[in-house]
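Per your request, structure below.
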């Protein structure tokens, strides 16, 4: 109705996840740039349908990246591998689909990316927009996320500490690396929720666009889930937003100038 189309295929194809191919390509360049300044990005699936993946404590970004790459379903807990694969097989036999939750973690982030002075300068807001712009993503959270609404302030706020070696840091990272829309030096932890794929082998009812009579949806080729692939997309989108913010903050005409600017900034922050 919005574009006066009579063929739904026009909208279906434009809204297809094929669109994310270019975002992954751009994300690869963004991750390479971030790598040059010591920033590493990794993603993994933390919930498959109704099954939560127990994540071992204190995993580094590099460890998350390695474990997820070794897993056929992009999880970091190998003990859950067979259970998840069997679950996916059963969902396919049932003619159904499942969604889930993906977590992206970014380590080595410079302090002070983003800004609190204006709503559209907040970096967590930019990341949130980027994540929910991915096809089928319906929500986003940082750190403890929506659980913050069930906890007391003393259980959520990250206490500030200082040491000669590290300068100012936090005892915890409940806020997912952000304060006031700015990075605080802790790892960025952002999660996105993906809804189940809508094309089902046991189609739901709809309405014929011409007769307005009840009509059973067409059966199309469908996967039971796209979570592992979506994790690649989300990682690329997060990396692209971060790389853009880095280039906005640190003036440079080449990679060496960029590295020098970031290094100088890190030194200033540590000695502050």
């Amino acid at each position: 109705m919005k574009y006066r189309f009579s063929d739904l295929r026009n909208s279906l194809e434009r809204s297809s996840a094929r669109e994310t191919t270019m975002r992954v390509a751009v994300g690869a360049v963004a991750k390479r740039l971030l790598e040059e300044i010591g920033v590493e990005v990794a993603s993994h699936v933390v919930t498959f349908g109704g099954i939560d993946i127990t994540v071992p404590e204190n995993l580094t970004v590099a460890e998350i990246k390695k474990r997820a790459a070794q897993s056929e379903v992009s999880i970091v807990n190998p003990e859950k591998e067979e259970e998840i694969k069997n679950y996916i097989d059963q969902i396919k036999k049932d003619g159904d689909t499942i969604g889930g939750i993906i977590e992206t973690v970014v380590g080595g982030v410079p302090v002070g990316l983003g800004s609190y002075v204006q709503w559209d300068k907040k970096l967590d807001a930019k990341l949130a927009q980027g994540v929910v712009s991915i096809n089928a993503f319906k929500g986003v959270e940082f750190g403890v996320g929506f659980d913050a609404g069930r906890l007391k302030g003393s259980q959520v706020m990250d206490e500030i500490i200082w040491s000669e070696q590290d300068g100012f840091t936090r005892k915890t990272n409940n806020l997912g690396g952000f304060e006031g829309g700015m990075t605080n030096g802790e790892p960025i932890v952002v999660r996105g929720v993906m809804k189940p794929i809508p094309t089902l082998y046991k189609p739901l009812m709809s309405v014929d666009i011409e007769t307005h009579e009840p009509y059973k949806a067409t059966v199309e080729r469908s996967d039971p889930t796209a979570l592992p692939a979506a994790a690649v997309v989300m990682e690329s989108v997060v990396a692209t937003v971060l790389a853009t913010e880095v280039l906005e903050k640190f003036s440079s005409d080449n990679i060496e100038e960029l590295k020098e600017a970031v290094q100088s900034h890190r030194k200033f922050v540590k000695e502050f």
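The helical segments are 9-14, 20-36, 61-70, 81-93, 123-132, 153-156, 227-249, 255-271.

Regards,
D.
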